[in-house]
Write a structure and sequence with these properties.
The chain is globular. The longest helix has 18 residues, at about 180-195. The protein has about 210 residues and is of the alpha/beta class. It contains 7 helices and 9 strands; from the N terminus they run E-H-E-H-E-H-E-H-H-E-E-E-H-E-H-E. It is about 40% helix and about 15% strand.
């Protein structure tokens, strides 16, 4: 199945209305960047957009493992999942702009993998070991939600391979040149073959600037 999405900065007072219009235009996904110094908070705005739409998938394009603790992110996305009746997506990358504007380094591929694995565990209601502390989203006991699909934005070969290993979806961020997309697909296909993961278990897409 082919999906088309749009990345739009959250716009307080307008996001919900624009989401309704984007859905009416036939788009499948609306993603808002999570870069705190450059645009408003996406998750609160996407929760409002959930109230004005019925079909549109709603998520971040992208959040990161640096500026938010994984338990905070797990709760935020779980809340959006509940508000949208299962239409939330967690788009996540290494955090270039959000980290840079806070004087921080972006996340490593290993850090991103750990974040994704912990985020998934939290959303399954599992207990996560956080420096010797048993950490769990206890509020999930009273709210029935399915875990949010995790879409990993990736550029380099190591991150693509990691995304193939642990992502539900991956989105290449390598530009729109066909040869670059083909290269990224070849890296992903090789990793699928090496690990034995079924191709139909992973959605693959790309961010394309227009």
């Amino acid at each position: 199945m082919i999906e088309f999405g749009i990345v739009m900065e959250a716009s307080p007072g307008y996001t919900a209305r624009l989401a309704r219009e984007i859905e009416a235009l036939g788009f499948d996904l609306l993603l808002c960047p999570d870069t705190q110094c450059l645009s408003p908070d996406p998750l609160a705005q996407l929760a409002l957009a959930a109230q004005t739409t019925t079909r549109l998938r709603l998520g971040t394009g992208v959040t990161n493992p640096v500026t938010r603790d994984v338990s905070v992110s797990a709760t935020a996305f779980g809340t959006l999942q509940a508000e949208s009746n299962g239409r939330a997506i967690c788009g996540i990358g290494r955090g270039d702009s959000s980290a840079a504007h806070a004087g921080l380094r972006n996340g490593t591929t290993a850090q991103l993998r750990t974040f994704v694995e912990r985020l998934r565990a939290y959303q399954k209601g599992e207990t996560v070991d956080r420096n010797g502390t048993a950490s769990k989203l206890r509020w999930l006991d009273s709210v029935a939600i399915t875990p949010v699909p995790i879409d990993i934005a990736c550029t380099g070969p190591r991150t693509i391979e990691m995304a193939v290993d642990v992502g539900d979806r991956i989105s290449f961020a390598v530009g729109s040149a066909p040869e670059r997309i083909e290269w990224a697909m070849n890296v992903a296909r090789a990793r699928l073959a090496a690990t034995g993961r079924a191709r139909d278990s992973l959605s693959i897409g790309a961010y394309v600037n227009l």
